[in-house]
Amino acid sequence: MNKNIQRDHQTTNKIFDNRSLEKDYVTLIPILKDGLRVLDIGCGTGAISKDIAQRVGPSGSVVGIDNTEKFIASGKESYQTSLNLKLFHHDLFSYNPEEQFDLIVSARTLQWLNNPKEALLKLKTLLKPGGQLSILDYNHEQLSWEPQPPESTLFFYQTFLKWRADAGMNNQIADDLADYFAETGFQAIEVFNVEEVYRKQDENFCSGLESGQKLLVQHKWWKKGISQMS
Ligand SMILES: C[S@@+](CC[C@H](N)C(=O)[O-])C[C@H]1O[C@@H](n2cnc3c(N)ncnc32)[C@H](O)[C@@H]1O
Prior knowledge:
Layout: H1 10-17, H2 21-24, E1 37-41, H3 47-56, E2 61-66, H4 69-78, E3 85-89, E4 101-107, H5 116-126, E5 127-146, H6 151-166, H7 173-183, E6 187-199, E7 216-227
The structure holds S-adenosylmethionine (SAM).
């Protein structure tokens, strides 16, 4: 069953607004070409979608969908000058557009689903024959800290992982995605390993984690660029 997480915290918009293609989805750049019709699933406020729209140029376009209404409302306001970007409040599983897409991308979204293989099957129906799918997700069990935070922070993180697992989310989805892709009939699967590093002095660092301490968090993720089975 598809679940829905409420994301109403005010800081979330800001975190998503600060994201960019160059900084937060760099492995996608080589496959972006003029004229591509792109669908971004779980686009948040559309910050990365807006950068993709710029790369595919006026002959291409990007549709971003997200099932959190306030993210879409915020993105529509912030990126209204991106004429080849359209943002819609929609859930992936009930999204049935008339057209299919050359490229579907989804960053940091399948990791929040309890049915990622169902999502891949749904995405296949939205791709043109020979189209490409790129997924960026984390392995939450590969996170490392430097220096080690206090026991209470580690306990909190373990509780977070347990909450995710109990809700049916895969904490190591990045490492399992290639298998999911193969099992759902995709071909030419490629895996890219990229480390994501947050430093205390960075603007996007969550200051609530630990004050007065330099903290470095590494998330590892795998991005899959694949060609759909024709
Ligand atoms: C961690 S955010 C990633 C946002 C953006 N892609 C980025 O990398 O900055 C995950 C997003 O997926 C959206 N989402 C989760 N489940 C969804 C679903 N079933 N359909 C559409 N969007 C969904 C959430 O609302 C959230 O905005």
